[in-house]
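Table S2 (continued). Query chain:
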Amino acid sequence: MSSDDMVLGQPESPEENVAEAPISDAPTETALPEDNPQAPEVSPGETEALTVASVEPALEEKKEDLSATVEEAVEQPEELSDEEMFLAALDTASPDKSDEFTLQPLRRGQIIEGTIVRISQTEIMVDVGAKSEGIVTGRELEAVPRELVDSFEVGQKLLVYVRSPEDRNGNILLSLARAMEEQDWRDAENYLQNREVYRGRVTGFNKGGLIVRFGRLRGFLPASQVSAERRRRSNGATPEERWSGMVGEDIAVKVIEVERARNRLILSERAAEREMRALRRQELLATLEVGQVRKGWVISLADFGAFVDLGGADGLVHLSELSWKHITHPREALKVGDEVEVEVISVDRENQRIGLSIKRRQPDPWEEIAAKYDIGQLVQGTVTKLTKFGAFARLVEDPEIEGLIHVSELAERRVTHPSEVVKEGDIVTLRIVRIDLERRRVGLSMKRVDSEEYLERDWRSALSEANDEGASAEADIEVAMDAPATEAASAEAQIVSEDAPAAEPEPEPEPEEAGDEAELQAEDTSKEE
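Corresponding output:
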């Protein structure tokens, strides 16, 4: 097939028509002259290839021109007049389907963000993206804290609640208080979902538990969800007795139920107790110092001491720091739930241990022992403990003071064990033979009770006691004698008063004269005796 036949046999197109002229002239341009004997012979296939190669560049150039024309047509949209654009905005539908001029309709209960455009004494105008500004009326402003209203500025962003999209005057009515309340509900749902701890304050109570403010909402804390520390303090038969003392206290809770339809917001202090306790423990350990005085509650007893809750961290009161008296178990001095005052005696922040003392908040009996007792004095003591080296005895008059009766001071004879002479619970007469205030020790003796070494001292002591008793008895006698003498003087004064003339009654004796006469009579009676 010739090259002319190949071109004419293809479908007609604009591109191919453009290429017909060079194709029809191709034989004169591409064929070799016949008079050139050296020219190579060209086959029909090669002729066809040369013709196509010459047409392709022209086709490609034509295609590029057509593509450019189409793109220019697409890039030039139809321009809209100002009137058409305004009408499109009113119809909430722009011909170019853009949202630039679209006004979204408002609905009641919607919470949206607006911008303050004007503030006056009676209202606040807010731009909410509608065809007119929204109004927060003066009545709505009264429901908002005054300090918050005073902080508002023109241009400030704030959330508002749509009370009415359009009232009878065509105004959009807004509310700040409802928006804040709605935001509180959303916050409560976030706290519930994220299980976060909320810090609030107890504002009231009822028979079932406490009321806790959650923003502008009233959250309810049932008695079953109150922490153990508060339950220990909730003593009483009435709600006032149980809960009134907690009003105004700070509290940490978790949201455990949110139900807007029933206006129901349930809180739990127990759920937040573990996290808050760890936090309070760290805070307490950072602020505790040796020598500080704190109040706490006994939470458990052990053989070696008592654990006291200081409000976030537990401290140990060792058995030796419970009381100046000798005790063998903490239950002899305390019980779980007791409120106690303690002194901090050690703080180990690395191991998180706190040492406390109760007896250091009590009067120290050893400070008075030097003035009250001296060596050689006889005392009464109760045997409390027996050991191989002696017996311990507690002074009857001062149970906080406990002394040792050495085994060599139990009797004149040789004693191998105190049980040969005394037993626990015996009340015996003892003599003080040693006082060591620095080491807080008292030495006692049984065998020296009748010792001649202290004979003169005992005689003087007995004489002093007898004199004291005699003086006391004499004073009692004088008081007893004064009573009849005073009565006799009163009777005599009354007789004199009756015998005196009615016209000139004599005045009654002055109290001092009557007293003097009674004293004289008492002295005469004493002399006669």
